[in-house]
Design brief:
With 320 residues, the chain is an alpha/beta fold. The chain has helices at 21-37, 58-68, 83-95, 115-123, 141-156, 173-180, 189-193, 219-233, 236-264, 272-305, and strands spanning 8-14, 46-52, 72-77, 100-103, 128-133, 165-172, 200-205. Strands 3-2-1-4-6-5-7 form a seven-stranded mixed sheet, with helices on both faces. Helix 3 packs across helix 6 and helix 9 (236-264) packs antiparallel against helix 10 (272-305). Bound molecules: uridine-5'-diphosphate (UDP) and magnesium ion (MG).
Length: 320
């Protein structure tokens, strides 16, 4: 795809990472220097740190790192905007200067030694290379099971995600530009990236434990993330409301038969048949009504998100 050596920007979102950052930087810097000396990536390649409104010394550390070498660029967000937004901010800033980006968490739980093979895949024509964890031995039992359940649920709901892939991935310039075309507020990047449709590949690695500091994803953020992921991609929950309504209607029918038999056998207390039938029928109609309204709300929702309708891969005879 590209004969020239690509400019690589490694985008690292950081939120309160003062403990992890110095160590992470050292390793990333070393890797980048090696890749430069092997001419795998251009000399203009850099590490781009995004400070997501940290409350600790993260930003002053980044300033020091930037002063100490010319391979550091940085973006500071005015306030904490969340991992996904920090990542987009970084990618948007990087895309103007580079041919490829690699996004990675500041704790380097993901093995940075596969970055060279990501770049190799890019050179062979892939626009997106997913970093996929082989196993999650170092994560807690809870994190592993909850993550497993989440991905299964997402797939069930029709959201395309790559199993055991987080936000560790290589994206070419045009893939980043296509991602930035998705202008929705609730960003669930790993769901969108698979939708872009560009040629992609996976590289596999073992995930290690956090270098230093603690996870910035407490249960509350994890749940928010999961709900965001589902509701930004799927209107199936609304359909379920409708289906439950239909189910209630069926129950109402069964109740009708039951009530009639009870009535004719003289076992029905007066007032009970009409009452019990109304309960199920009204319930059914309310749910079906909600489901119908939900379908429209779902349509409005997809319109409001204003997603691009398609993404062009190649054209012939039409200069882009
Ligand atoms: N992060 C961020 N903003 C936030 C929360 C997290 O930029 O509000 C960054 C964090 O600094 C790290 C990455 O997102 O680089 C992933 O966070 P973490 O490693 O704590 O998540 P975990 O690996 O536990 O899922
Ligand atoms: Mg982590």
């Amino acid at each position: 795809m590209s004969e020239h050596t690509p400019i690589l920007y490694i985008v690292v979102p950081c939120y309160n990472e003062q403990e992890a950052l110095p160590g992470s930087h050292e390793r990333l810097h070393e890797l980048l220097s090696t890749m430069k000396s092997q001419s795998l990536v251009s000399q203009e390649s850099r590490l781009l740190y995004v400070d997501d409104g940290s409350r600790d010394d993260t930003w002053s550390i980044i300033e020091c790192l930037a002063a100490g070498g010319n391979d550091v660029a940085a973006v500071k967000l005015a306030c904490n905007s969340g991992h996904q937004n920090a990542l987009v901010a970084g990618l948007a800033a990087a895309v103007e200067h580079c041919d490829i980006t690699v996004s990675i968490d500041a704790d380097l739980q993901d093995d940075i030694n596969v970055i060279p093979s990501m770049v190799e895949h890019y050179k062979q024509g892939c626009d997106i290379v997913f970093g996929v964890r082989r196993e999650r031995k170092t994560d807690s039992w809870f994190k592993r099971t909850s993550a497993g359940m989440f991905y299964r649920l997402m797939n069930r709901l029709g959201v395309d995600t790559i199993n055991n892939h987080a936000d560790y991935r290589l994206m070419s310039r045009r893939a980043v530009l296509a991602l930035l075309d998705y202008r929705e507020r609730n960003l669930f990047i790993r769901g969108i990236v698979t939708k872009l449709g560009y040629k992609s590949a996976c590289v596999y690695y073992d995930r290690s434990a956090r270098l230093a500091g603690e996870s910035k994803y407490p249960l509350r953020k994890m749940l928010n993330f999961a709900v965001d992921g589902i509701t930004s991609f799927s209107v199936k929950p609304v359909r379920m409301v409708f289906m439950v309504g239909v189910l209630f209607l069926l129950v109402a029918l069964i109740m009708l038969i039951y009530v009639l038999t009870a009535y004719f056998m003289g076992r029905a207390v007066s007032g009970w048949p009409s009452l019990i039938l109304s309960v199920w029928l009204v319930g059914a109609f309310v749910l079906i009504g909600l489901g119908i309204i939900g379908e429209y709300v779902g349509k409005i929702y997809t319109e409001v998100k204003n997603r691009p309708r398609y993404n062009v891969d190649t054209t012939i005879g039409l200069d882009q």
